[in-house]
Amino acid sequence: MLKTPLVIVNFKTYPEATGERAVKLARIIASVAKKRKVAAAVAPQAFDIYRVASKVKIQVLAQHVDPYKPDKFTGWLLPEAARESGAIGSLINHAEHPLRPPEIELTIDRLRELGMASIVCGRDVETSREVAALAPTMVAIEPPELIGTGRAVSKVKPEVVSDTVRDVRSVNPRVRVLCGAGIASGEDVRLALKLGAEGVLLARAITCASNPRAAISDIVEGMVKRRR
User: Fold this and answer.
1) Residue 228 has pLDDT above 60, yes or no
2) 64 an active-site residue?
C-alpha cells in the first residue's frame, strides 16, 4: 500500500495547510514526488481528508483515529469514516496526540481489520521496539524534543535512528522504519536513509515554507540521491 522510500507530510493544524490551502499544498507535493518517482503521502486534518483525497492523486492519511466500531460515540474519529473519506491509513501516537499502549494496540488492530495502514510514532528506541511487536505497517522514530526545531534527528542523534532500525527489525522485520523530528532538508533525508530508515515523516519544513515547492523538491532530492 505504502511504497518506500516514502515521504509523509503531516499538515497538523497549520493555517497554510487548511481547507483549500491543503489541496494546493497536496498538489505541489504530488507533482514533485511524481516527477522524481518518489512515493509520497499527506496527513491533513480530519475535516480536509475528503477534500484532499477527492481532488489530488496522492495517498492520504488521517492524523489520528479512535479504536472504536460504529455505534454511539459522539465526537470520536472512526477508522471507517476516515476510509470512506479517502484515507488509506492513519498516524498513531504522535507526540502531540499520545496514546496509552492498549489504545495503540487497539487502533493498529482496527486499521488492520479494515485493510488500512498504521504508522505509529515512537518517542525513543525502546518505545519503537515495543510498538514493532504489535505489527504496525510502519514505525516513525520521533524524539519529541526535536520536533519542529529544524535540528534533524538524523544529524543530532543518528544513533537513535540506527538503533531503532536494528531493534525494530529484530522484533519484526516486516515493519518498516521512518525517521521524523527536525527533518528539514534533503541532506537530513539522505542521512536518515543511510542510517537504515525507509522514509521520513515531517511537517513544518514543508507546510510553513515560504516556497513549498522548493522545500519538497529538496526533501525528495535527498531520497533520489540516496538511491543512486
Assistant:
1) no
2) no
